[in-house]
């Protein structure tokens, strides 16, 4: 049994349903994602959080069509992409655009910003016929001057380059933006500017946003719903409130690791100490994949070490407002009916 897809699935513009994905083939294949389901609707932000190696970037590749799932379905406007004709799929894929992590490597250093945007507007078209008005409009949308079109990427700061990358993603008028760690390569002084730009664009254009991050403080600021990945599997899912009262010990661990600028963290009990190595996503531990690191420790029920022997399914939690967790012994919080 699995939980229902998070979010208003009837209105979702992008869904993944029980998707597994990986790399390689045959004996060299490595499965990285396992039975992941989520949905995102226009005007909403789904946060994907987890440590490095949890499968976040692999999920991004599946969402934008760079990596085909091994099983499960990817649906755009409730249409299975695997059943689309080639031309239909090409058009559908333009509606889902990636804003990558590194604005330095994602722009051609020898191509002016205007040419990069023109190529995005009309892939394979003649760059001799550049739509200057449209390029100026895109640049102004991300708070850059129109004359930026005639300059090369190295002439811009990191924050400005990320704005150019966002403008390039907007060139095809997408319905969904996949933002993959978009502030991790930026100075803290400009991170807020880029985040606020994304929120402003989302409101203005009614975009669905999938926001991938390892930073829970940013996730709290940006997201409406959260999906927590651990070694390629969803361990918790629900509205943003789950970050304030996690049900899964792994989410609780992530939450405890976020510094508290108020200083309150120094007066509370220290976060639990756990094994630092999350393990191999291609070969996760048997049973609950988190059990070797779980502060609660593997529990024994009627003589059986259930956490080691049985993988917990992602199931709805009674009294948690539609949230779900994959834990045999979810954490009980004040105000919960469990």
Give structural notes:
There is one protein chain. By secondary structure, the protein is an alpha/beta fold. The chain has nine helices and 14 strands. It has a domain of 215 residues: Rossmann fold. The strands form three sheets. The chain has an eight-stranded mixed beta sheet, sandwiched between helices. The chain has a four-stranded antiparallel beta sheet with strand order 2-1-4-5, covered by helices on one side. β4 and β5 form a beta hairpin. The protein is globular, with a radius of gyration of 21 Å.
Chart the SSEs and their pairings.
Blueprint (H helix, E strand, L loop, with lengths): L13 E10 L6 E11 L4 E5 L6 H8 L7 E6 L2 E2 L5 H8 L2 E4 L13 H9 L10 H10 L16 H13 L5 E5 L7 H18 L2 E6 L2 H7 L2 E6 L2 E7 L9 H8 L43 E2 L2 E2 H4 L5 E2 L7 E2 L13
Parallel strand pairs: 3-8, 3-9, 6-7, 7-8
Antiparallel strand pairs: 1-2, 1-4, 4-5, 9-10, 10-14, 11-12, 13-14
How do you describe this structure in short?
With 338 residues, the chain is an alpha/beta fold. It has helices spanning 56-63, 86-93, 113-121, 132-141, 158-170, 188-205, 216-222, 249-256, 306-309; strands spanning 14-23, 30-40, 45-49, 71-76, 79-80, 96-99, 176-180, 208-213, 225-230, 233-239, 300-301, 304-305, 315-316, 324-325.
């Amino acid at each position: 049994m699995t939980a229902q897809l998070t979010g208003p699935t009837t209105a979702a513009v992008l869904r993944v349903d029980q998707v597994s994905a990986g790399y390689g083939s045959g004996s060299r294949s490595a499965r990285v994602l396992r039975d992941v389901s989520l949905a995102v609707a226009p005007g909403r932000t789904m946060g994907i959080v987890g440590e490095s190696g949890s499968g976040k970037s692999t999920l991004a590749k599946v969402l934008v069509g760079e990596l085909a799932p091994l099983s499960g379905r990817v649906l755009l406007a409730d249409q299975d992409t695997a059943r689309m004709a080639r031309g239909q799929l090409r058009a559908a894929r333009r509606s889902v655009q990636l804003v990558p992590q590194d604005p330095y490597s994602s722009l051609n250093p020898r191509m002016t910003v205007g040419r990069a945007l023109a190529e995005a507007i009309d892939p394979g078209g003649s760059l001799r016929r550049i739509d200057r008005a449209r390029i100026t409009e895109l640049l102004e949308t991300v708070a850059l001057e129109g004359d930026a079109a005639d300059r090369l990427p190295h002439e811009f700061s990191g924050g400005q380059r990320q704005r150019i990358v966002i403008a390039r993603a907007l060139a095809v008028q997408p319905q969904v933006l996949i933002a993959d760690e978009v502030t991790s390569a930026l100075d803290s002084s400009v991170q807020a500017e880029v985040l606020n730009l994304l929120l402003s664009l989302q409101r203005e254009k009614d975009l669905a946003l999938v926001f991938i991050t390892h930073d829970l403080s940013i996730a709290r600021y940006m997201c409406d719903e959260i999906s927590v990945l651990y070694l390629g599997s969803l361990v918790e899912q629900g509205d943003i409130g789950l970050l304030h009262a996690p049900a899964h010990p792994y989410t609780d661990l992530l939450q405890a690791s976020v510094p508290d600028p108020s200083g309150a963290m120094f007066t509370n009990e220290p976060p639990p100490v756990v094994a630092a190595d999350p393990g191999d996503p291609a070969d996760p531990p048997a049973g609950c994949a988190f059990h070797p690191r779980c502060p609660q420790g593997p529990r024994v029920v009627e003589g059986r070490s259930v956490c080691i022997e049985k993988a917990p399914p992602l199931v709805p939690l009674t009294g948690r407002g539609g949230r779900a967790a994959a834990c045999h012994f979810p954490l009980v919080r004040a105000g919960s009916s469990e």
